[in-house]
Amino acid sequence: MRWESLRLDPVQPGDSGSPRASASGPMPLANPTLFAKPAVVRTFDSPGFAGMTFFEVHAKSILNKVPAASRLPFEWTINPYRGCSHACRYCFARNTHTYLDLGAGLDFDTKVVVKVNAPRLLRNELANPSWAGKPIAMGTNVDCYQRAEGRYRLMPGILQALTDKGNPFSILTKGSLILRDLPLLQKAASRTEVTTAVSVGFVDPVLWRAVEPGTPSPRKRLEVCRTLNAAGISCGVLMAPILPRLTDSPEQLAATVRAIASAGARYVSPIVLHLRPGAREWFMGWLEATHPELVPVYRSMYARSAYGLKSYRDEICGQVRELARAAGIGANRDRDDRPPLRQPATEVAATAAQTGDQLSLL
After folding, report:
1. What is the domain range of residue 215?
2. How many CB atoms sit inside 10 A of residue 143's CB?
3. Which helix (H) or strand (E) holds 317?
């Protein structure tokens, strides 16, 4: 999706109060070929949104078709947000912000596009006679349960629309906010197939604060996994990303797998760090500032591929699979195989990621 399929509503009279609405002045998105002017640009006074700007847009479509060349097991995605306050330094989706004339670094973390009409639009698109009820994946680009969701509450309407239609779906998240919608997920699961996964690449609290500063802690995410499974909502763990020379020692891998097993995850899918354009520059800048001795290692490992050396990926994922088997977790099959479609979509997406397939589903 590009900006030509979006528009921004004018500011309405009296549209102020707690959020601050602005319709004038220079804006990074003020492109007359892309927007109707004036545009709704909001900031909020609460500490949780300090330094953030939200661009409220009305999308023309919300169901996104996955490119045919992809080996992913789902054909459709929903992304109610663009940009993400999780601020993960390695996020592969960073470069998608440049499509919107925004930066892949700080802009991605602090300038979030909100598709405010997503629930209504989804209900209309699901009602189209041509819609075949295909499974829909959410959280494959940026997190649909990032902090902004607490303010905009788009997901309840999205989940209700999917439930009313009986449409299967999956959710991948780092956010604990998904538990707010547990009753809706249970209702949906009584009518259709619902699968979820949380992303936890490591359990080191110091490194978590350094590379995932806007996320709930890894332990909190694993509590989410435990709670979802206990409530009858299938949840696995994407052990992602595994950071070379930072979280990949045998002891670190074992500690992470033990924590995942203790949370009762249905499966664990290891994914080694990807460094695609946008994410590469942002992550390497952080690495140079905090671990300069590792810069030559990373440059060598990622010189020819955004996915690193295949021999390294195979070795690390093999270790995780062995640890998972020993812990009694149902691990993924070999990353070079194309898994059957009956696997949870989030699990198969991890397999596609390891073989270099596109996960940036817009």
Report:
1. 3-354
2. 29
3. helix 310-327
The reply to whether 332 falls in a domain is yes
- The string of pLDDT tens digits covering residues 209-267 is 999 999 999 999 999 999 999 999 999 999 999 999 999 999 999 999 999 999 999 99
Q: With 80 as the cut, is the pLDDT of residue 330 above it?
A: no
What pLDDT is recorded for position 22? 44
Among 219, 315, 199, 293, CA closest to 262: 219
Q: How far apart are CA 129 and CA 246, in angstroms?
A: 51
CATH of the domain at 38: 3.20.20.70
The token pair that represents 217 in the structure block: 């802690």
309 lies in a domain?
A: yes
Burial of 118 (0-12, 13-18, 19+ CB in 10 A): buried
In a domain, 361, yes or no: no
Q: CB within 8 A of 228, min separation 6: which ones?
A: 178, 179, 182, 185, 196, 234, 235
What does the pLDDT look like over 107-130, one tens digit per residue? 999 999 999 999 999 999 999 999
Answer whether 201's CB lies under 8 Å from 241's CB.
yes
pTM of the predicted model as reported, rounded to 2 decimal places:
0.85
